[in-house]
Specification:
This protein is an alpha/beta fold and 481 residues long. It has helices at 3-6, 21-33, 44-54, 70-79, 97-106, 118-157, 161-176, 214-222, 280-292, 294-299, 301-318, 328-345, 359-366, 368-385, 409-424, 454-470; strands spanning 13-17, 37-41, 58-61, 87-92, 110-113, 180-188, 191-197, 206-209, 226-228, 251-259, 262-271, 349-356, 391-396, 399-405, 438-445, 476-479.
Amino acid sequence: MSTKEKFGSEKNRILIVDDSPTSSAMLEGVLGDAGYTVQSASSGPEAIEIIKGWAPSVILLDLVMPEMSGMEVVAEVRALELPRRPSIIIVSGESANEVVVEALSSGADDFVIKPFNEPELLARILSQLRISDFYREVEEDNRSLETILDITSAITATLDTVEVLDIIVKRVASVMHADRCSIVLVAREHEGYILAAHDNPEMHDKKVDLEKYPEIVEAIDKKHPVVLEDMLNHPLMTKVKGNIQDLIEMSVLIVPIVIEDTVLGTLFLRTKRKESGFTKKEIEFCQVVANSSFHAIRNARLFAQIVQEKEKLAELAITDQLTSLYNHDYFYKRLFDELERAGRYETPVALLMMDIDDFKAVNDTHGHRTGDVVLSDIAARIKSSVRKTDIVARYGGEEFAIILPQTTLQGGVEEAERLREVIVSQGYGGLPSGKITLSIGVAARGKVAKGASVGELVNEADNALYKAKRSGKNCIVHTAS
């Protein structure tokens, strides 16, 4: 890598302050060849104005000049409120020890005697840049820590979720100098909500189509930060490029808020970083803030509503709508899980397959509405009669299945008889006889071996159930295993 390539960044700006055109031209040539961005001033007042607007990293300053001496320039520069402290290197023909001491004591950082040695001057500039970078990192770390402490204090000081989220985005936007900082809640596929945006409080709870934000979708899918240094021309944004034409030279950082492998939302930042990019420390800072915001997001009213909706949808996916028991598919999943667990701990498992006797006659005689009422009533009675650890499912039609963890074959038979009596002993409205009977097949595994077959156990219970039907119904048949 050439010297010019090494120092080509805009942050390495150098201001030459010298009333000698010859000296300035010589320095400009040396620094230009080294790849620095250079400006020159021939007087102290001119230099001060440039420093205020241009913020150089290093100032090469002559001591003897008209209007203001080099010492006076140093004093005024150190009194300015600047975004970053510039390093001042005195470049002068004055070489007396007392002059050097006075300059360094007044606020200069280094002293080079004319005529200067080019490699030495470049080395001293590089040294000052390293020192500046170190102090800048310390300042950034302190600012980041202060922001994190502010956010933590805000979270513990108020129960107002909106206020907490607003504080988070405003603090982060300030530290990162962001044009937009927002927190986006992931509701469901392709749907999100802006919980807070530092530049527009009106966007609170605004619904957004995530398909229009492929950078957010990427962070959600990957579950790690996504950085686009030039979002307008990034391949990821090709499909939505027509919608972001006004975001020229904008960069984005999206940090997913992940808890227990689930993405709750994202911290979204957009700012002009095309040239400098986001540093590793900045990304890590945003990750800490994102994790800190988890509790605020979880407490958000909208989040609670969405969680309830998701839980309801999840429940609907595994529940039989008529009886409110588990459905056929979930029954097989739970049976597989229970056999796996039983195999791991060498415990027994029993399975009951139950069928309502002559239920077709109920439907044919009294109608399907009455039949549905009977089914629901029986399901409720069975569910209220078993242990909390037992899994009751509607297997299909008028057939039910019950998984009995840690239950032997004998225990399964006893439970089947108890349930049969519960159903037979009670009447059912709408039926002349008021009575319903059950046929039940029981199968079990003693100390379940690892990898026990779900299908084999179901087939055994089914076969036992068919034998009960052929044996006159309203009875229990078991098949030992």
